[in-house]
Design a protein that fits this description.
2 copies of one chain form a homodimer. Chain A is α/β, with parallel strands linked by helices and 236 residues long. Chain A has helices at 11-14, 19-28, 87-100, 120-133, 148-152, 174-177, 196-204, 219-235, and strands at residues 5-7, 36-40, 45-53, 60-63, 67-68, 77-81, 104-109, 141-142, 146-147, 159-163, 172-173, 184-188, 208-211. Chain A has 2 domains: 5-68, Ribosomal Protein L25, Chain P, CATH 2.40.240; 77-235, SPOUT methyltransferase, trefoil knot domain (Alpha/beta knot), CATH 3.40.1280.10. In chain A, strands 6, 7, 8, 9, 10, 11, 12 and 13 form an 8-stranded parallel β-sheet that branches. In chain A, strands 1, 2, 3, 4 and 5 form a 5-stranded mixed β-sheet that branches. In chain A, helix 3 runs parallel beside helix 4 (120-133) and helix 3 runs parallel beside helix 8 (219-235). Chains A, B: Residues 17-63 form the Ribosomal RNA small subunit methyltransferase E PUA-like domain.
Chain lengths: 236, 236
């Protein structure tokens, strides 16, 4: 399998690469007709392909083979976080979390959010390249930004956790309370933390209060380490 | 305790802030005589202080109190890694690992290292600000870059692990083999991995081969997640 990876959600039907991937293939990598490449549909498959037309905007390929590549974890990991003001910090979190393995990202709009909007395309670009770089074939879902209240009211089958920094006698370490094989949804707040009202709303809706350790962590660090905690628990 | 933190290794004796911290105090934060600040010596103490002289190069303070603040983990975590070509990736690893809690950083010069030298000052700057931001009072040790062979021959009391990507029947998941309370030294290789010879040298010297998960991780991601794995195991 050629280790030049491309992402084309519709590859199976279109046998084409999207504009940006075509550009990368032809302009950056200078690939030519007959070259071998590997395409993923982000739906759990790798397709070793041969380049038929090296078009700078829509490359056409022939699919030589279909290799199933399911995700490497057997639980659902859904992380909902309040994006930081600094876009770089969100982007590195998205990159690292994707390398590590996450099913779904939900950017939250919280009372104390420093960032009120988030361009989905930029995050998607990062996530796609991290997925390719880490040789995965399942593309995480990236939700548009959603108000906190609306998000927590959504149903979720599995454990629901809220990592907040307010004093709370019922708070447990995520690493202690979550168990192997459990689907997990974790909420991470903005730099200014969740509001008391938001925490209460979450608790009322069945979210469990958790901490991620002794030290005060930045939002993006907390988000990544929350994801990794679940993976570590599942390795045991 | 005032939450404007400063780092001054010699505070107890000198009752001064170093040049850079003085600059930050006077020029950036515009602090004035009589203002309260918190200084850490990086050796496990916070010192609530009062600013006596707001000098742009060497602020003089009076120590009002001495508050012991030992590190929040009761094991030794030593990470040795081959720095990436891209300095930003090293710097974010240093920042995140410090927020999380690490005792010692050792940059390695490996056969396939893309980066042959590393400016200690830049990394130290990042580590200091991460230590302050996460309100810790113990400064991690930052070693100068050291050749792989020389490093692995140093003694270490505790478990020694090498995370390499070569096929190895004896490899175990770090999360499965390391146990709570154990001191750990973990080696993380360059993008091109450790050489076969380096892996063999480490194994001969008692390093245990480990993996960090299913997915292929970037050097800096692997380094951070290796550190976090140890913390998660210790939370259980």
């Amino acid at each position: 399998m050629a280790d030049t990876f491309f992402y084309s959600p519709g590859i199976r039907v279109s046998q084409q690469l999207p504009e940006q991937e075509s550009q990368h293939c032809v302009k950056v990598l200078r690939m030519k007709e007959g070259d071998k490449l590997t395409v993923t549909d982000g739906k759990g498959f790798f397709y070793p392909c041969t380049l038929l037309q090296a078009h700078p905007k829509h490359c056409i390929v022939s699919i030589d083979e279909e290799i199933p590549r399911p995700k490497s974890w057997d639980f659902t990991l859904h992380i909902a976080f309040a994006p930081t003001k600094n876009i770089d910090r969100i982007e590195w979190f998205a990159e690292k979390a994707t390398e590590l393995g996450v099913d779904r990202f939900s950017p939250l709009l919280c009372r104390f959010s420093e960032r009120k909007e988030l361009k989905g395309e930029r995050v998607e670009k990062i996530v796609v390249s991290a997925m390719k770089q880490s040789q995965q074939a399942v593309m995480p879902i990236i939700d548009p930004m959603i108000p906190f209240r609306q998000f927590v009211e959504n149903p979720f089958t599995g454990r629901k956790f809220i990592a907040h920094c307010r004093p709370d006698p019922n708070k447990m370490a995520l690493a202690k309370t979550c168990r192997k094989g459990e689907d997990a949804l974790i909420l991470i707040g903005p730099e200014g933390d969740f509001s008391e009202e938001e925490v209460q709303q979450a608790l009322d809706l069945g979210f469990e209060p958790v901490s991620l350790g002794e030290n005060r962590l930045r939002t993006e660090t907390a988000s990544l380490l929350a994801c990794h905690t679940i993976h570590v628990l599942n390795a045991r």
